[in-house]
Amino acid sequence: MRSSQPRRITVVSASVGAGHDGAARELVRRLKAAGFEAESHDFLDLLPPGCGRLLRASYALELKVAPWAWGWLLGGLEKNRSSSGMVGSLFAKAAARRTRKLVGSGTDAVVSTYPLASQVLGRLRRRGELDVPVSTFLTDMSVHPLWVAEGVDLHLALDPVAAAQAARHGAKDIEICQPLVGPAFRPARSAAEVTRERERFGLPADRPVALITAGSWGVGEVEQTAREIAAAGVAVPVTVCGHNAVLRERLTAAGTGVALGWVEDMPALIRASDVVVQNAGGLTSLEAMASGVPVVSYRCLPGHGVTNAAALDEAGLAVWIRDEKKLGAQLTEAMSEPARSWRRTAPGADRVIAELAGADALAAPVLEVAS
Predict the structure, then answer these.
(1) What is the 3-state secondary structure (H, E, C) of 32-72?
(2) How many CB atoms lie within 10 A of CB 367?
């Protein structure tokens, strides 16, 4: 059932990696399908000219060249709340004017899928410069203090583990909801489907496949991960290098499993795999779980990669493999067990946000996903 009248919902994401945009894109798709006016905007475009490109380039360079520095920065901001507050305030001042103009009149609710956008929207809401509800969809399982901004009306968390972290950082109103994963991510319907997809991607038909993901930028200790999985001998490493052409060339030259570049049909590739090995704990982890494929964390990126791995492990959703000597055994165990996923009944984020915007509750069924 559609809303009785069209309502406008604005989503603010950020083009840093693919996870924030992926969640925003799926949210907009669902809201439009339910009859709402919905659109997503890039937070980087709300910053002064050139600042957004600089922020994106700096983040990418840091993850590629000195990921330890990113972990150090996030850890420092979490320990020193005054510094975290100053960062939030700085970006709030930089993006306030364009954000007010973006929301404008006629908007019924605003949703953020990016922590710095939440900081801006929360401050504007707290000061009375936004008169519509603001919600934050927490895209990660772990919650950094920058995700939580005073003034935000509602925080949407993926799991009680994430909800508890948000509460510790001061979030007042929290609701647990289903992940924003597109319908294309589903379990394989038959063994024949898996065989067809493996043939399409050039994957071995007669051996287990460990799909290594490292985001759209292909960052982290990816090459070492592929080598160690190959050496363990329990699965063929298939590495998605994204836009990192150098990584793909090196893996191909070394003959380490199968190296792929940017993949358009990730749902099919995930269905063709026996396990997903990830290092950041972002959207791909959620997509794999929705596809019925087990997930493990290994050689995680400092900062959000490590904290997400810890949160996924705590929630019982993905084993965090910390010891190379246990890699083979733990991969084998993961592949031999049913994929883990959400065990509780929870509403979709689109339903919660629609109600926040003042619309009638959506009639879409609540999903219950069991392990």
Answers:
(1) HHCCCEEEEEEHHHHCCCCHHHHHHHHHHHHHHHCHHHHHH
(2) 12
Q: Which parts of the chain are beta strand (E)? A: 8-13, 37-42, 109-112, 134-137, 154-157, 174-176, 209-213, 236-240, 258-260, 275-278, 295-298, 319-321, 345-346, 367-368
Strands of the sheet containing 8-13, edge to edge, are: 37-42, 8-13, 109-112, 134-137, 154-157, 174-176
What is the pTM assigned to this prediction?
0.88
Q: Which residues contact 9 (CB under 8 A, 6 or more apart)?
A: 31, 36, 37, 38, 107, 108, 109, 110, 111, 353, 354, 357
Query: Which residues are CB-neighbours of 1 under 8 A, at least 6 positions away?
Result: 360, 362, 363
Q: Which of 282, 223, 300, 312 is nearest to 68 (CA)?
A: 300
Residues of the chain with pLDDT under 50: 1-3, 363-371
